[in-house]
Amino acid sequence: MDTPLFLRYIWVMINFRKSEIYKNPNFILGLILFVFFLKGVLLSSAFPIFGGQDESRHYNTIQFLAEPKEKNWKMEKRTDVQQDKDDISTYRYSDEIKQTSLATNTDVLRSEIFNTIAFSSNDIGINESEIKSKPWQPINRITPPDMVYTSQFFHKITALIEKTFSNQDILIRFYLIRIFSVLLGTFAIFLSYLIAKNMGFSPKHSLMLAAIISFQPKFSMYFANINYDVLMIPMFFLFTLAGVLTLKKGLHWKNILLFVFSIAIATLTKGTGYMLIIILLALVAYLIYEKVKLQKKQIRLAVFGLSIFVFLFASLFVYRHFFSISNSFGETISSMGEYVSKTITFGKFLLPSSTYWGNLNWVNSWTLNNATNFIFIIEIAAIVGLGMMLFSKKIKTDFLPEKKYVIFLVSMIVFLQLGIRLVDWNIFNQIGGLKMSTGTPGRYFLPNLAAHIILVFTGLGALLELISRKYKLSVSEEKMLDHSLVISLILMFFFCSYLMFNVIIYRFYL
Q1: Do 131 and 169 contact (CB within 8 A), yes or no?
Q2: Residue 113 backbone phi and psi in degrees, to 5
Q3: Spans of the chain below 50 pLDDT
Q4: Rounded to whole angstroms, what are the CA distances from 395 to 106, 308, 379, 405, 466?
Q5: Residue 406: partners with Cβ closer than 8 Å, 6 or more residues away
């Protein structure tokens, strides 16, 4: 007689608990990655087709690169048609993209923020049968096509997916590329665990930090869409890991390979990657200083002067290469005061928060309106802790990273912020006003999400250590950090879930 299924299930669970595999860090890490991947697939399904940031333009670039090199169809040159952001038919996309947008009813999302997509009356989506019959060709007939022209490395990679599944309909091809984005996000979460662990956090704390990052709402949403940032962000994480390993073990050849690979892919993917070159030079200068700090004063000054010269030369090279300069250098510098006075204010400095943590402006909610205020209070406490850790000798813990790692992560954030502001400043010089501000969207700061979250809890850990010692609390500082990480993970989980079900699905479908 066969054993009932529920008894076999109980037997498996008993043996599972006896094996204690669930306490294994590798098992928990695998579970975190698996949950992130499933969440990403769910989000990629929840977001309407072409519903991501500039997603239609990125996908049109992929389709263009997947086309045959020899264009054996008639091309129409069109530059005089005024594009209407509310009407996708005015864009120079492939017929397949424009017609699919109309057929799926997603074009209505462009014209009004409160528009939603209509449901079909059965289990087959609106016009799904027509879309699957592939009545429209995935080729660009209008030139020049609306696409990404600056950096196409991500698009060339994903064009391979487009070509491989060219016999499938657009729904399969499009969502397969979205799933590829989810895989890149999963890789980034894995890297965040390695960063925390190699900085000196325990495996348990490193796992909780990786889990918190995996539930950061905007990070989860962004990696459910098609955008070249989903390749650049993991490269920033990989560069951060290489920097941490270098500070830990020295400039080993393996770390050099990680630096070269991450910088090469990041710069090929997006111009923001050039900032990694500047950070690497600063890191190398620090390593050289550590080697010669006990040498004679003349040697130290020579090395310091050479480092400054190389750093400034590289900075000027990146600036000249990365930014299009229409004004003279003197005129550009003179505009700095005007730019700072108009854009770098306290209110505008905090403005990216609502889009850094998620789409908090989509619905009117007390929870969302006050979420960033609550996070800001935590960050202020963390900054106080980091300040005490860096400038006070009273804080000595063996469960937090050393100062050199903290300084490195802070420099990552500062240099990226500087790079973003330089781009914004460059545009300010070109257009002569505030018609466009690229420094506002919070998604531009996601490359340093791992550094940001790790720094926050490093600062909180330092502050908790100070409080515990001052008031002679019976609970250990490490245990207090345990509790703060667990509470933060629970809050981040509910925050992400709230945005998924009460904002995204509500916004698009209800």
Answers
A1: yes
A2: -65, -25
A3: 1, 434-439
A4: 55, 32, 19, 15, 7
A5: 386, 389, 390, 455, 458
- Residue 438 pLDDT: 46
Q: What is the pLDDT of residues 247-262, one digit of tens each?
A: 999 888 999 999 999 9
Query: CA–CA separation, 183 vs 187, rounded Å?
Result: 6
pTM of whole model > 0.85?
yes
392 within 8 A of 231, measured Cβ to Cβ? no
Closest CA to 188 of 238, 246, 222: 238
Amino acid at 470: K
- Upper half-sphere CA count for residue 349 (Cβ side, 13 Å): 8
Alpha-carbon gap, residue 267 to 278, rounded angstroms: 12
Contact 241, 61 (CB under 8 A): no
Q: For residue 248, with 0-12 CB atoms within 10 Å meaning exposed, 13-18 middle and 19 or more buried, which class applies?
A: middle
Q: Report the chain's terminal Cα–Cα distance, integer Å.
A: 51
DSSP 152: -
Q: What is the pLDDT of residues 39-49, one digit of tens each?
A: 999 999 988 88
Provide the 3-class DSSP secondary structure of residue 326: coil
